[in-house]
Amino acid sequence: MKPSRIHALVLALLLSAGHASAADLPPGWPGAGQLFVGTNYQPFDRSREQIERDIERMKAAGMKVVRFGDLSWDSFEPAEGQFDFRLADWIMDRMQAAGLKVLLDIPGQPAPRWLHHKYPGVDIVNAAGTRLAPAERYMDNTSDPDYRRLLVRLADTLLKRYARHPALFAVGYNNESGNGMLSYSEADRQRFIAWLQKKYGTLDALNKAWATQRWSRRFGQWDEVTLPYQDGPGAYEPNLDLRRFWSQQTIEVLELLDASRRRHAPDKPTISNLWDSAPRKGFDYLSSYRGYASYGAMGFYPGDPLYAAFEATMMRAGMDTPIWFNEFTAGGTGYYGTRGRSRMWAHFGLALGAQAVMPWTWHSHHGGEEQALFGLIDHDDRPSWKLGEFATIAKEFAQLEKLGFPRLQKPQVAIAYAFDNIIATNPPKGISNSVAPYINPGYHKQMLGAYEPLYKDNVDVAVIHIGHEDLSRYKLVIVPGMYLLDRASTDNLRKFVAAGGTALMTAQSAKVNDFNQWHTTPLPGGLTDVFGLRTNEFYNVGDVTVRYADAPDAEFKGKGLAPVEVLEPSTAQALARIVNADGQPPAITVNRFGKGQAIYLATSGQPQLLAPLYRRLYTELGIERGPATPEGVIARTVQGRAYYVNTTGDTKDIAITGTRKGLIGGQTWTGTLKLAPLGAELLDSP
């Protein structure tokens, strides 16, 4: 897609304003001033008459882009090497004639039945050694060489055919990559051994990394190595390497697909519906996304606004490009939904920096795994009320794209997040419960606790793997409950603080090394001099009361959700103390290191304690807050205009300065904006 002269001018202005760099922008990037409402389309069980009618309805609703191809390998290749593109060619041509762009998904999962039948290495083998038939989606062993060979051929064939088609807008890879099951075949065991040999080099190094001297677990030869049990019993170290191995398999497949795109369609961006946090498998997205992603993209099915905001922010990672919701909630929570909720979530996404919403799904499913799932077109082929709601969203997006959307962010705050830490803090079954409190009081609780005050203060945040990013972009880096803080992250954090940055770490951080073994040095491992303290003991005082040294009249309450760490400062100073514990031990310390400072919180990442600390740091570090809002309303400033989204079912009163006009609703407000339930408004500049 060639940018227009207007797009080129906008891009030049962005670059000159420091909002992005040319190296950060992928080929064919749509740029500022373009928002997209589209849909997900599975047309292979539709008649040509229905497809013609579908496309007419999409166009009439103001849709611009259609995601097509996912989950449909055998529709393109019904038998090995026998490709049939007659229907797909016709659909691509019809989309182009209607002015609709196509996000073409390479449908590498699920693999067809014929592939499983002819190449049984693609079948999943469970931990008991039983080969499983592909009874549901994603029961594919993507590490199998035959699978990869045939997947690359599929990608090459599709991209050769459609790379120059005028309807092609972008390319996606393997719907919901990260979902699926671990496999325990003999071939998988051999691949795992080869991966370990490359990683560790010698058996001695593996034995040391896995602590096999404990309980007579030592390996005498490589062939004694087995695949650890994902669900236990097991030990910390092998379980971590098991999940790293399978993560790498997913990443390798994504990189193979991206290599095909670079060969055949290098001018098209990659916008893939990834699922790095899939509970059965998952993968290390944050350390690898630059190898296969132009945009942070995801399926967006929100429930709790706080978690939804965090998840979308995490998928954006360290990119300068907007977020794409490749799958988007159609009607709210559940299959049936609530009128107005999809519109609210669409505006919620725009506030976070989204560029596109694509409801799942266009037409309701009559059969298969998602039968009775209601789409924008009902089961009797009549338009649902939801289609009208997305037409409203498309109309409002067309208005907002002229007013500074999508929002290109430059966050000043980053939160550390890592796949390794998720695995390390969720050990396999069979681990002694007596050590569980010292591992982590719920990593996601720590993470969300650290994010919540920033979310409520309407502060833009980047969620990143701090060992793989340039931290100099940020003023504040928060490290919440990073039980496993790897060497690369440790070194990068040290460099960041020494150069003048501010780091904030919470309890339960930097306890184990890259191998998931406790540090033999003082804790936090590798950073005691940076934070100017040693922490080793734990104690539990129940609810904690914290008082700052320079504000003795103000107290902050923290919940006794987890043990509190005993901080032993060396060069650090106590910023606040726990006043209801013996000796009033430090609750928060601050240490000067190089040109920067390192702050340590003795409790888990609790919003009650972090919110007042953040607000001190906003002023000290010059971090910009968003507009003040009541509970349940998020807001951002967009080119001097205040943008509000009400996530609740109640009307919210928002104090404003003077008289302002609502550019979405058209109403004029003086002193107070009354934001309707699930409402959104962009107020003109005062």
How is this structure best described in words?
The chain contains 18 helices and 25 strands. With 686 residues, it is of the alpha/beta class. The protein folds into 4 domains: 1-32, no CATH class; 33-182 and 247-400, TIM Barrel (Alpha-Beta Barrel), CATH 3.20.20; 413-621, Class I glutamine amidotransferase (GATase) domain (Rossmann fold); 633-683, Golgi alpha-mannosidase II (Immunoglobulin-like, Sandwich), CATH 2.60.40. The strands form 6 sheets. The chain has a 9-stranded mixed β-sheet. Helix 6 (145-162) runs parallel beside helix 9, helix 10 (305-316) packs across helix 15 and helix 15 (443-456) packs across helix 18. It is flat. The relative contact order is 0.08. The model is unreliable at 1-28 (pLDDT under 50).
Oligomer kind: single chain
How many E strands?
Answer: 25
The outline comes out as flat
CATH topology of the largest domain: TIM Barrel
Main structural class: alpha/beta
Number of domains: 4
What's the level 1 CATH class of the largest domain?
Alpha Beta
Query: In DSSP terms, counting alpha (H) and pi (I) runs of 4 or more, how many helices?
Result: 18
How much helical structure, as a percent, in the residues? 25-40%
Biggest sheet overview: 9 strands, mixed
Please give the alpha-carbon distance between the first and last residues.
38 Å
Low-confidence stretches: 1-28
What is the typical, i.e. mean, pLDDT? 91
Domain Glycoside hydrolase family 42 N-terminal: 41-399
Enzyme class: hydrolase
Protein name: beta-galactosidase
Signal peptide: 1-22
